[in-house]
């Protein structure tokens, strides 16, 4: 079927939200941990994390306007630090529950049954249940004026995971780590490794490596 | 294991590239189709597409500096139109091959064995082998000065897919569509649906729907 620009604009709101949120396929799923003004821990679920560069190691995350992410964004702006934590099958229901609109002052860790973890010298909370935990320092906040969203850019300053997840050449095995992926706002998927392919060169067929 | 900021900066370059590119988990995989200056079709593989909003329907994609994506970016700047096309198990090796550095003037469609598809009134080429095809009009180009990358923002103006992939509420079933996901630069995964969860509200346990 063909869906035109006109029919997208005329769709019922929640239908369009589901369709467009699931349009680009499987998305990166991360719990972002921050510290609130009064010192309590805050946790939010995001599917808009994007790799920006490896040297320096930069990750971006898009924040929607006036969403539940508001606390997370203002905490990052104030403290300059945050964590990203992967989500596995063991606790994805608790992770999803963090997207409920808790009032400021409530900690999603407590409300949703997840465990805070801290490392010395870094203020933002990690998720103990996650198998890959990343600490970031805020580097830049880029307003996206076209729809009032915000791209937050952070530098990776610490990574914690089981060393067995990392191949000899540095690639992380997310199947081993149990990482989930998401499509749309609420549809969770496990992933299974299909193949690694060799570096592509003109005229030379790629090989499975 | 713990990986510190210092050890990230001291890593051998290709190891760091693999590690940091695979750090955030499963990424959205899209072939981007454009039209070159001389009228030939161009195709590039991207894993940095991010949902920006549903109304208007906006998708962003991050372009690396001076990479093979250069042709794609300059084509988008010049023509204002491009397509995104999902990748399935049936042709992921051809899709990967498009990341080889073909010289300008060569069409990755021809070189990699993929089939161009056009719709009336839209200039950029789609990938016939893809099961979900999206047409976009350029809306904004946002330079990310911190590492010289670029966020290209486009509005979805046309979508083609089998109507059976779309649930009653608008959610796309990417398992049915055969969509693949990628981790790092070269590690491809299939995905299997785990669960959909109900809209999260404070104090109410989420349910599988």
In words, what does this structure look like?
The structure is a homodimer of 209-residue chains. By secondary structure, chain A is of the alpha+beta class. The first copy, chain A, is 19% helix and 37% strand. The first copy, chain A, has helices at 5-10, 13-21, 70-79, 92-97, 108-112, 174-177; strands at residues 2-4, 27-28, 30-35, 41-46, 49-54, 57-63, 81-85, 116-117, 126-127, 132-144, 149-161, 181-183, 187-196. In chain A, the strands form three sheets. A seven-stranded antiparallel sheet of chain A has the order 4-3-7-10-11-6-5, covered by helices on one side. Chain A is globular and about 60 Å long. At the A-B interface, strand 1, helix 1, helix 2, strand 2 and strand 5 of A face strand 1, helix 1, helix 2, strand 2 and strand 5 of B.
Give a quick precis of the structure.
Chain A is an alpha+beta fold. Chain A has helices at 5-10, 13-21, 70-79, 92-97, 108-112, 174-177, and strands spanning 2-4, 27-28, 30-35, 41-46, 49-54, 57-63, 81-85, 116-117, 126-127, 132-144, 149-161, 181-183, 187-196.
């Amino acid at each position: 079927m063909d869906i035109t620009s006109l029919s997208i604009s005329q769709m019922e709101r929640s239908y369009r939200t589901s369709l467009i949120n699931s349009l680009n396929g499987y998305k990166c799923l991360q719990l972002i941990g921050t510290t609130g003004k009064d010192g309590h821990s805050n946790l939010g679920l995001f599917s808009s994390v994007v790799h920006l560069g490896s040297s320096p190691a930069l990750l971006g995350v898009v924040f929607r306007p006036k969403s539940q992410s508001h606390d997370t964004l203002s905490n990052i702006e104030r403290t300059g630090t945050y964590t990203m934590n992967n989500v596995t099958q063991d606790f994805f229901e608790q992770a999803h529950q963090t997207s409920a609109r808790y009032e400021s002052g409530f900690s999603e860790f407590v409300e949703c049954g997840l465990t805070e973890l801290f490392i010395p010298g870094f203020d933002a909370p990690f998720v103990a249940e996650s198998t890959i935990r990343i600490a970031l320092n805020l580097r830049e906040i880029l307003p996206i004026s076209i729809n009032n969203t915000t791209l937050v850019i952070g530098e990776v300053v610490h990574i914690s995971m089981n060393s067995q997840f990392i191949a000899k050449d540095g690639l992380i095995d997310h199947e081993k780590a149990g990482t989930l992926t998401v499509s749309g706002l609420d549809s969770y998927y496990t992933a299974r490794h299909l193949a690694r392919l060799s570096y592509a060169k003109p005229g030379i067929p790629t090989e499975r490596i």
